[in-house]
């Protein structure tokens, strides 16, 4: 039977691949797709639906796991008989898509931290709403942590706001300085959580060209003149997804432009602790106009949801506190309290040291397996790596890796401005151990080899 199935994808907030699986399930249940029908090739269906190849690939994999279809190498995917609609029992793909720190160092210390909390004199205070910017002990601890780990010397704890993770810190900063319809400048490739915030906030984004150091100053100057934008969101240290680090000269050039055009800088420094030789953050170079965002999710444990936002001045601090109050009423208490306990008693430094050591080993393993495909990392403990390639090659690689059992970051996830750069981000920290990481990286290496082979055959 010819593969002519063209589903109607239901509307909703679920990821597109999940809604595509739902359409497949509905068409099988209604009889529109009979048992044995061959589904269209993934590339053909992606073209007809006007969606990314990675979306269709993920949907086909999930449909197979759910028992809806059976995939046969060289033949395609076929609809199963109804009796066969049962979950396909196998381990999920190896997680190379999620950028989090290895958990072992924190897990070995959490029980002791909880025991120590029982002896804190301020424990019961955390049962009430926190003060508008957070408990003073947590704000002081956050300032000390930024000073120790991110070269943010002289941070004033009185301008620090405790948040439920760096993502909330970004949200608060953006809502403090932008109105619906305003333009936000950022890198052409950026953190996908920032993209989600801009869509939700109704702000227009302009993604700016990059080079080996990240955002280009000339592109920033041109965009300010063209759009009248007054806010820049930037990740200067171990940029996500590329892992690039801005030099001091590059940062100075951007500061000069920002001062000349009265530009506010929102600086995401969540990976600063993994770049020991990075230049000072923008919050040091231009403290009068920089919101500094950081936290402990990439260094201690993401479940703590302890983030820090440092505002540039008294007026912006008050606006940021009000923005937080509107969405959360008060900062969270107990996740930040555990982080504070660890920072105060030295456990946080020990966790970070172990995590850095593990990061070095994992990055070395990735470079050994993937070789020249990896853009040269700018820190020996970088938690993510970048494989530059064309958009089509990136989609193919992600699809092959997923079918092989390893999930990488969706190639379109970081794209703010198409047509500038493309590639695949691989995260090294989410898997539980190095042996699992090795297997995942070898799957990616195999997918890269297949891609090279296909291109060679095409030339012939």
UniProtKB/TrEMBL annotation:
Short name of any one Pfam family annotated for the protein: Aminotran_1_2
UniProt xrefs under SMART domains: HTH_GNTR
Keywords: Aminotransferase, DNA-binding, Pyridoxal phosphate, Transcription, Transcription regulation, Transferase
GO function terms (MF aspect): DNA binding; DNA-binding transcription factor activity; pyridoxal phosphate binding; transaminase activity
Residues of the signal peptide: none
Annotated InterPro entries: Aminotransferase_I/II_large, HTH_trans_reg/aminotransferase, PyrdxlP-dep_Trfase, PyrdxlP-dep_Trfase_major, PyrdxlP-dep_Trfase_small, Tscrpt_reg_HTH_GntR, WH-like_DNA-bd_sf, WH_DNA-bd_sf
Keyword Transcription: yes
Domain HTH gntR-type intervals: 14-82
Similarity comment text for this entry: In the C-terminal section; belongs to the class-I pyridoxal-phosphate-dependent aminotransferase family.
Stated name of the protein: PLP-dependent aminotransferase family protein
Species this chain originates from: Caulobacter vibrioides
